[in-house]
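Page 42, continued from yesterday. The earlier attempt failed because a stray header line got pasted into the input along with the sequence. Redoing it now with the clean sequence only.
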Amino acid sequence: MSAVETQEVRAVAKWVRMSPRKARLVAEHIRGRSVPEARTVLAFTQRAAAREVEKVLRSAVANAEANHGLIGDNLVVAAAYVDEGPVMKRWRARARGRVARIKKPTCHITVKLVPGPDGAVAAAPPRPAPVVEQQAPEPVAAEPEAAGPKAEAEPEAKAETTGEPNQETEPEPKAKPVKPKKRAPRKKTEETEN
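This time it went through. Structure tokens are written below.
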């Protein structure tokens, strides 16, 4: 009996400023789901903890793709749990010289991913292809001598027939920006002085 080791990738967010009890409610929703499904669930969950759990899930997927050559969309959330962190204690002044304690809880969020049933190992880790800028070919200008004087007269004739100014000879007049008129100060009358 040889046990086949499955690759397990994990990501941890420590000291998240949130109650572990509230974060656990969100972590339960993604346990056992595929990564695309878990992302969709977290996107439509309206709890504040969903944003924090989604960051940890994104980090775990990035770890799997960069360090282990796995395909992120083929992974499954094997475990998602929230541990309790240290509680910060503060105080607030109350009536008659008393003090009320304020507890600021923290938590540690852990997400573990494993390859799905359809095999998530990529043939090679994806590398971005080098970007090659292609320059546009320069337009070939027709020689005016080869065209003859007849070709030069055609744009003027076309401009006269269409009623538009010729682009080569006459630039189109630019419209001046219209400034708003300043309002004259109000004249004082006997009624406004009183």
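Notes: Residues 49-68 form the longest helix (20 residues).
Reminder to self: strip header lines before submitting.
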